[in-house]
Amino acid sequence: MKTYSHILFDLDHTLWDFEKNSEETLFTLYEEFKLAEHGKFDRDSFYKKYKFVNHRLWDLYNKGKITQDELRNQRFIRTLTGLGLEAHEVPEGLSKAYTDLCPTKTAVFPFTYDLLQYLQPKYGLHIVTNGFKDTQYIKLNSSKLHSYFKEIVTSECCGYKKPDKRIFEHTLERIKVKPQDCLMIGDNIECDIKGAKAAGIDQVFFNPENYKHRCKPTYEIQCLSQLQQIL
Question: Do you find a cis peptide bond into 121, omega within 30 degrees of 0?
Answer without folding.
Answer: no
